[in-house]
Design brief:
single chain, 119 residues, mainly beta, Jelly Rolls, three-stranded antiparallel sheet
Length: 119
């Protein structure tokens, strides 16, 4: 067994064209897992992902700040302690509100891919 403390995990830049800005860092949690990618992602104010989907299910656990998780049909405000389940193939985006930073843990099967993203 191993316990990790997010506050002790180094933040590294997380630059990818799916983000609306470069104000994003990532903290790898249990990178030795053979089955799951588990990371804490930190978004600067107003930074979010573009509309996208995955080829596998995704779980988000909000750890700090104030954010939005949205599909093509709805937008939901989320805060620390909220847990979000996103089915495979569902178009969605998530990120910080304009007035707050935002962090969440994301969990999905290792090897999952963004299947598409839109501006």
């Amino acid at each position: 067994m191993r316990v990790s403390r997010i506050s002790e995990i180094a933040k590294v830049p997380f630059v990818h064209p799916i983000f609306t800005s470069k104000d994003v860092t990532k903290q790898a949690i249990f990178s030795e897992s053979k089955e799951y990618d588990i990371n804490n992602v930190n978004f600067g104010r107003g930074t979010r992902l573009k509309l996208h989907s995955h080829d596998n299910e995704q779980i988000l656990i909000v750890t700090a700040g104030k954010g939005i998780v949205a599909t093509e049909q709805e937008e939901v405000m989320v805060a620390p302690g909220d847990v979000v389940f996103i089915p495979a193939g569902e178009k969605h985006w998530h990120g910080a509100t304009k007035d707050a930073e935002f962090s969440h843990i994301f969990i999905y099967r290792r090897g999952s891919r963004y299947t598409q993203w839109e501006d």
